[in-house]
Amino acid sequence: MKKKDKTAGKSREHYSVILKYADVFIGIAALFAFFMLMFEQIDFFKPWLPILKRINSGILLLFLSDILIRFLLVSKKIAYFKAKLIDFAAIIPILLLISGINNYNVYVMAMLTVVSYLMISRIRKITIFISAIGFKPAQLMIVSYLFVICAGAIILTLPVSSAPGKSLSLLDALFTSTSALCVTGLSVQDTATHFSRFGQIVILFLIQIGGLGIMTFSVFLFILMGRKVGINQRIVMHDVLDRDELSGAIRTIRFIVKMTIIVELFGAAILTILWYPEFGSITESAYHGLFHSVSAFCNAGFSTFSNGLMGFASDIGTNVVICSLIICGGLGFMAVHDISDRIKARFSHGKHGVRPRLRIQTVIIFIVTGLLVVIGTMCIFIFEAGSAAFSSDPMTCILQSIFQSVTSRTAGFNTCDISLLTPATLFLTMILMLIGGSPGSTGGGLKTTTVAVLWRTMTNGFSQNRNVEILKRTIPHETIQKATTLLIFYILLLTIFTMVLLVIEKLPMIDILFEAVSAGATVGLSTGITAKLSEPGRVLIMILMFIGRLGLLTIGYALVFNQRKAEYTYAEERVMIG
Fold first, then answer.
1. pTM (2 decimals)?
2. pLDDT in tens, 23-55
3. At CA 397, angle to CA 392 and CA 400, rounded to 5?
């Protein structure tokens, strides 16, 4: 009996090893098929399209064989079928493709669905393989974002994604997909007229994923499907959310998703009511309301109107709703979560219980956000009162000043013509864009907390105080170092990219600089030069948007492999400063 048990144990061990290697092989094959789909969208490879389709058909047969072999090898087939129901669902589009379907849109969508699922599901299970590669959370985020950008671009190149009589090149599709996923809003094509309703929904879906964050979105799908979230995923989310404890990461993700859905639906409902007289159709007003609600909360700046929100410059209701959504998304999920926890704690403890206290980070976010909105509004109103960009009506002018102050830091919407703004307002807008939103928010930029730490570091330098203190709390030296590093990185990044763009593009310097800052801070405002950029220029803006969304520190952690240094200190020597 012992020999039989040992033999059975060894066979099971060999079987699991074979399955792991099979997972690697299928994952690589799926990745190859994914790139085949990319090549199909490039004009250079159009003559070889039938050959590429045959290669992908062969890969699909490989997938089908893998699923069927696994099913035949297991003893408990019904239990296996229930556990792997999603795998078997992948057979449906495979059979459709094998049957010779002629619709190219259906072919690519089905192929992309099968390839993406099998690639993710197979590689996700190979923990030994991933450990061997040594992926860090930052590197995993970069790979995930690149994959979703490419998948979005493939769908956007399909004829069904464009309006009748129009098409989108792969480069422009990559640009649009990057801008949507990185919640920026810069676009080389008019979202309202160039894309079909299907294409706009694809863009909206990318905005939603980008706003939540790919890691948050994927872990939530795990929870939704009833899958257990392993310790590796929890560690990744711990790093993404920058939490002190590991246990509350899943609870925080649930809160983030619930908050996002509630706020976006609430905003969409109000906009639907406000815009119903404009469209005269509940369906149309609901669609545009939902699109702008998601885009505003995620700070994306995409609009289904050709002139943005300029048509609603004097509409108080629209201005209030959009500004509220932008601010709510720009505050950061952790700040809102902190407020929610404190409110619950206050009610649970009662009047005589321990008074809950907000985290210093949350207080800083609210103070800096309020100051920036007020100062920005006052300055813009002074700079633009009576200008060609703003309305001559005082009330509308005030609304436009408030709106531009709010949207300039994160969102990218506009109720005025940005190209007509005065140089002073453009310069102030660039400062606001560089500051950006708050940590853990849908906005980009340096972040409000970084600016607060840098400001206190500067003022402490004048007083020669050894410790940097904010609201009676001492800021750790590591935080100050990160803030300083981030500022220097941003300045270097924008300087280098702006100089290269000035060499490539024959456009005014102020427009180029404005575009670079907008892309790097993932804001999306433009003076109207995005569509005029050359192909190399568009690639550079895409890279800026990508870096801006993931964050310079994330990119740095992903690229720097030896982060830890031996614990020793060189002898001190003073250097003259100033």
1. 0.84
2. 667 767 777 777 777 777 776 667 777 777 777
3. 135
